[in-house]
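Example record

The entry below shows one chain as it appears in the dataset: sequence first, then structure tokens.
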Amino acid sequence: MSEEITGLSDRVREALAITKRGCDELLVEAEWIEKLKRSEASGKPLRIKLGLDPTAPDIHLGHTVVLNKLRQLQDLGHTVIFLIGDFTSLIGDPSGRNSTRPPLTAEQIKANAETYYKQASLVLDPERTEIRYNSEWCDALGARGMIKLAASHTVARMLERDDFTKRFQGGVPISIHEFLYPLMQGYDSVALQSDLELGGTDQKFNLLVGRELQKHAGQEPQCVLTMPLLEGLDGVEKMSKSKNNYVGISEPANDMFAKTMSISDVQMWRWFELLSFRPMAEIAQFKAEIEQGANPRNYKVLLGKEIVARFHGAAAAEQAEADFVNRSKGGIPDDIPELALTGAPMGIAALLKNAGLVPSTSEGNRMIEQGGVRIDGDVVSDKGLKVEAGSFVVQVGKRKFARVALS
């Protein structure tokens, strides 16, 4: 144990452990400990900032890694500032990108922000969340203030950022306004006098700029907490809608549970650490029980039900487990869509597409080749099958069903 964390109260030790759980980096740990000690002594909550540019309205479990951390810190009594980057969204965040991100319109930003916060409130405690918009101080900064802010950093310092370096060396254009983005994000920390700012690992440079600008403004610099990017259902790529390896927090409970059950036994522990609110000691006990012969599936069920209950409630989590068990036994869910189609006899691939079970006939043929298509429980192996008029249940994969009346 380092000298810096000896002689701490149990409350501060607990807060430090909760802060560091699953994190990539905590900078600077010794400073954070001092902030926690001061907060405990004074009873004054620390100000914890998360800045979000509402570039897309839908949140998946990967986004909740940071939101979960915020909720844990809220539960310790601290104030969370949910900062909507309505001004910085007009610039476009270049972090982690090899090209300029197009800016959004004010209307897009407003609509996305409202949807985003509504979803985030499923994780955060709205009563202990301060919602701010950075146009509040950025608009007031004006041209004079912007030039003064730009004078605080050099081009060489900006080019230390990995994505800027790669673009510069690769001859990919960097617009001047992109250099302003980390400065404006850092200026948010000055305006809010934040004690801690959270972000993904791709935001580290921007978060550190906030520290420098706070020092420049005569403030105590914020600490920086970076959280890892959650791998998606494939266990390899980061969770992303574009890679179709995501679990959306507004998805139906049954789909959310089934997707969680599809992850590997190894990946399950990563999800437990970053998505579960269970104590790490309890998770360690789960590992020990599996090593002694317990079935990993039983613990994945606990994880899936915890995640579903957070967004849909405990009753929905129980129902989702029952639905999953029913499907795994070849049963048909109760809540499948019903639709009427005309055109019998209809080719099986066209039927799958018209029923909304696959995006195209070629995808339908691919699923047939893989043995993933059933009609009334019987596997379809003939891509040339013509389906006659009648009523039947069509299934694609483990989770897609439709009750079709074909005439």
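Notes for this example: Residues 338-406 form a domain with the Structural Genomics Hypothetical 15.5 Kd Protein In mrcA-pckA Intergenic Region; Chain A fold (CATH 3.10.290.10). The mean pLDDT is 87.
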